[in-house]
Amino acid sequence: MTLTKRKSFRLGDLVKQLGGELIGDADVRVSQVATLESARPADITFLTQSRFLPQLDRTQAGAVILGPEVRDASSLPRIISPNPYAYFARVAAFLNPAAVAEPGIHESAVVDKSARIAESASVGACAVIGRRAQVAKQAIVGPGCFIGEAACIGAGSRLHANVTVYHDCRIGARCIVHSGAVIGSDGFGIAKEDGIWKKIPQIGRALIGDDVEIGANTTIDRGALDDTVIEDGVKLDNQIHIAHNVRIGANTAIAACVGIAGSTKIGRNCALGGASMIIGHITLADNVNVSAGTLIMKSLEQPGTYTGVYPSSSHQRWLKNAAHLRQLDDLANRVRELEGRLGKAKRGKT
Amino acid sequence: MTLTKRKSFRLGDLVKQLGGELIGDADVRVSQVATLESARPADITFLTQSRFLPQLDRTQAGAVILGPEVRDASSLPRIISPNPYAYFARVAAFLNPAAVAEPGIHESAVVDKSARIAESASVGACAVIGRRAQVAKQAIVGPGCFIGEAACIGAGSRLHANVTVYHDCRIGARCIVHSGAVIGSDGFGIAKEDGIWKKIPQIGRALIGDDVEIGANTTIDRGALDDTVIEDGVKLDNQIHIAHNVRIGANTAIAACVGIAGSTKIGRNCALGGASMIIGHITLADNVNVSAGTLIMKSLEQPGTYTGVYPSSSHQRWLKNAAHLRQLDDLANRVRELEGRLGKAKRGKT
Amino acid sequence: MTLTKRKSFRLGDLVKQLGGELIGDADVRVSQVATLESARPADITFLTQSRFLPQLDRTQAGAVILGPEVRDASSLPRIISPNPYAYFARVAAFLNPAAVAEPGIHESAVVDKSARIAESASVGACAVIGRRAQVAKQAIVGPGCFIGEAACIGAGSRLHANVTVYHDCRIGARCIVHSGAVIGSDGFGIAKEDGIWKKIPQIGRALIGDDVEIGANTTIDRGALDDTVIEDGVKLDNQIHIAHNVRIGANTAIAACVGIAGSTKIGRNCALGGASMIIGHITLADNVNVSAGTLIMKSLEQPGTYTGVYPSSSHQRWLKNAAHLRQLDDLANRVRELEGRLGKAKRGKT
Q1: ipTM
Q2: What is the largest CA-CA distance in chain A?
Q3: What does pTM read for this prediction?
Q4: Higher confidence at residue B267 or residue A1?
Q5: Within the 219-278 window of chain A, which residues sit less than 8 Å (CB to CB) from chain B?
Q6: Is B244 a catalytic site residue?
Q7: What angle, rounded to 10 degrees, do the helices at A315-325 and C328-341 form?
């Protein structure tokens, strides 16, 4: 996308580096990944679903990544992999390596003299780093970030511009935190006395594991008494809210606009769809999937997919149907009464 | 609202500038717009719905903007326009012109020497502008903003304080971007391999057209491979999430807290109500309206208004009715059975 | 949680300071609050619900706060209070006093010479304060904050890092504003003319009362013509959106991810659950509770709890049941017809 001339690689060398079976000319060179539709001859593309086969026929790509079941669906030079999407991810990462820290502290950054910044770390312009904070080797703290007192940023992690990390919080190694994210703000702890809300100091921390990605404007509150914990490998999209004392299990992926209320525990390898909401003080087992837009109001002890969404329709149709929702109990009673009058032994439960 | 003395204008001159038919004293002067209720003699007010006629009687305003059908509903000096609300918008903009850039780069801003900043542009305190970035004439980059490498800010656009624009992204001319907005953060692209999520580099851009407004803390992700595109004249409220590879058609307006998942295409002149959610990989036609709080799960090919919201009621009533939702299939079967026993030819479909 | 040595207090002195009845050794010393499960001998813990009694038996705490009905449920030194949670809040605040401003303006902050900063106030690194802005005594403006022209920050208020306050807005005394919050951004005011959206200047202000807490990345828009008003003692969690001209009554508490559309009035002492949404131009009475995830579409004139949430279930079950929602009107008609054929005088209304 930029005008910089890109480096290209032989398919033969790609396969040597990344695995996979090569069919066709090993000397074909590619420099970038692209979709079937927008690919040009210097690009390598990929096919993950058979419904895209017609686009495969028309692609201008120089090479393609295919699953074994469609290994001959194209005459292009191709790499066969049992998981073509993951292979594509590997190629994309190989061709687009992450930015490397330019070691050093920008002269406009304000770093407390008691903070420990690794020599190989990078601190951007106008970043502010508090007392006793630590930034480990090869970490990047972007322009305008704030790192509070005694907070730690792990090795190789990258905070994009304008991220805020409150005092005492920890971000593990190789994390990526996007702009506007706030880690360790106070949880919503209030107690009512004589009609007035009193603030409860939030003395726990927010602890982020290794290899976690946190999206733009996502907020993760610190714990009230104990800590809020995001385990290793968790992937969080944008504008997610994680309340105090939540724990998210390893390798769980959460789509944008999700809210998780206080003290809830989410298992490992879960997937929460966009704008789903999980109330407080419940537990979701490992391998639970929650559909987009679903509100979960009680613990889910079994893996599986859970959904609760009002289906949309034309507004007129919705008006007619939705009105009955407020009388559904009445309707059910009337059906039961009809059944009684017809002397029927009920088949189902109500 | 401030203590600065405001400039006032003759009604006659307003009409000369902005059109409309004047009834009454052309020499009356107004200096500000106001609601019917809070207007004082130096203010001009407006009426858009006949239900506000009683307030029109009581207003203290010096003048009023009316539609032709109520041209004589007041004896105040008045301007008649076929679209009084749009006329009010014009007067409001005339009386409250947008801030003009104070040309120059604040001495505390950090601007890479390869960036190109127009002489008439303004770069605020503690703003950071990366390599090869461009800020066009009369553009305003607010305090604390970050503009990434090779990003472009179009002529006359205004970024309020603390906006983040990632590398390679483009913002068109005459845009307004509010504080905390993040443009071009990575899309949520991950692929699972051996139980671990691998990040897929996001190499597309976020491209924002001309005359776009972007609300506070709204996030627009860059594309995965191709670009995320916001067409001209789109208006985005606060805390909206737009995922990678989404396209929003020209002049579409989106209310706050909306989420649009990846690769979805929204047509032109659409209106998405607050907190509506649109899943990924679907298409909404031009002129589609989505009601507040509605989740759209499939493509909408026809213009119109679509709704899917669970109607609220007292909690007690909700408890009674909602329980039946989980047995709705059973209830429908029982009704069908009753119909069968009564030998009825079914009238409707189930 | 930090390595700093903490100060400890005699239980006898705590009760002298904070009230409550002490049972047991007044010389026991505590230095921190903790949960029943994680408390150690130097901690004081608390019990708010009888279902936690088993944990009370096992706690390692040095003392406990109990309600009068369970005054003898533990043999630990204990403080009896009619509202143990509020008492705990008092103890927690006593043991964890809020940060005190380090008076002075950081040398990297950019403060307009016409701004008035109290001598006892603190302005952090890289903060930017505009013309004629005011920061009252003992207020803390965190690193990277932006305070616009003529905005006022009240006495003793604390803005954490990277908060944005637009021109002319006011924040009262003793407020806490978390990182990423935006106060006073433009409301979503647009008028369509000839198929194009025209911006309506937003000339009202955002006025925040005393003792208000505003969560991370929450946005409060300024008014269109009149002001947006948050009354005293309101508590706002993270990622809340409050649109132009909304008024929130005193001591109302709003959980995360809530959206309130334009011109709506929320009463006093209300509680809005997480991710609830309130449409525009309506009024909620005092003492209204809205359940999490509920969309309120009309004014609520009576106190009480209101709910409207589609209950979640397994995806399979949801598929079967939700399909009938689109034919609910038809189903109701069929039941009515069956009733008619059986000659029944209807018991309920439909």
Answers
A1: 0.95
A2: 87
A3: 0.96
A4: B267
A5: 233, 235, 237-239, 251, 253, 255-257, 269, 274-275
A6: yes
A7: 50
